[in-house]
Design brief:
The chain is of the alpha/beta class and about 500 residues long. It is built from 20 helices and twelve strands.
Length: about 500
Amino acid sequence: MKFPRSCGTLVHPTSFPSMYGMGDLGKEARNFIDYLDDTGQTIWQVLPLGPTGFGNSPYASYSAFAGNHFLISLDTLVEKGLLKKSEVKRAEKPVTNEADYEGSYSIKNELFRIASRRFYDLTTAEDEAKLEIFKKNNKVWLEDYCLFIACSKANGRKSWNQWPAEIAQRKPSEISKLKKVHREEINYQVWVQFEFFEQWFDLKTYANSKGVRVVGDIPIFVDHNSADVWGNTQYFEVDKQGNRKLVAGVPPDYFSETGQLWGNPLYKWDVLEKDNFSWWIDRFRQMFELYDAIRVDHFRGFDAYWEVSASEKTAQKGRWIKAPGEKLFQTIKKELGELPIIAEDLGVMTPSVEKLRDDFQFPGMKILHFAFNSDATNSFLPHNYSQNCVVYTGTHDNDTTIGWYRTTPEIEQHRAREYTRSDGNDIHWELIRLGMLSVADQAIFPLQDFMGLDESHRMNTPGTVQKNWLWRYTKKMLDQVDRDKVRYIIQLSNRKPSG
């Protein structure tokens, strides 16, 4: 990643204080970017932006390519003349610290249908041309995704391997018939994707105009119940009926004593390689259009992945299988050029994983919450960093820094106080200061830590399904961030790029 020495904030768009139950890509997103600009920060990191399924996890999406249309701003649709203020008014909800996904989805579905009909009824020649360009540029995934969603709705939202066999197995005559049967729904799905990407690229352009670069997130695996697997079964470990055979996870680690059984179908890497990794090239190409750089989640899975039988209840019984990471990234680099990638290299790293990361000069990640559980050789302590890395206090999978400090063992609290030469009362600022003053090229911190929030504001707890991905902030909370303090530490640590 060719970023200069810089810093920024990690926060997902769902956390913005929109009036409509969950954050979106509208005014408050721009207000957040203005905050970054005002304080001298030049990086905004987000979680995956795909359409979410059960549990609202950004890492469990119906598509590796499509966008989460519930992030579409209703206010922007009013500005475009596709909705009326009076219509949008009934979608307003009090801004709280938790997203009301179900309530927001319900009213937005109604309003998006209205806006879609108006778009098609009132479309200008210019709009029609833009829509056709969008369809052409996204033909590798758009048609399959829109048909997948239409079929999913028609089949009671059941997983696609439970659909009638001729649909699940994509019998050509049946697919042709379904495209006609679901034409109206497909047109609607095309429009919401078109609108999502229009709004996202407008927002990214705004960020870039302020000198803010956007870092995205690409999960290594895709959800089983997705258009990706349904439309490309040849690339995944599923049987003829679409049932999973081998699934992904990680063995027992810091986050879980039984490991994490993610359940995503594993890739048939030999088939992908024979196809010159075309599916992956398409995926990375789109990611590099959406973002200025991307964090590759579970990077070690490109070197070796934890294979578990789909019949297992936990991830304990599995085995490591070698993956063709070097060939994959060589092929992608040859096709797409420089790869602005951050490698999520957490967990148990092996020399071969580190070699894969370093051969391509991908910066790794350093988490300060992990720095105090051993001695002075701990690789997460700043004095052990190399320059080519990204330092975080924690990520979306960690507690807030205040929450971490309150619950971590006393010996770790003591080491943190000793290392920071502090009493621990402002531990969030002490760790931010550590990260900022380190040699790491990039320093990125969750917004909750700049706000000094406790464990009740945590975004996600790995291995659990309740109360995750809900956190939101209010306008007042952003206004109360000590901007002078942020500016000062950025100036002190030389993290505001010139020019």
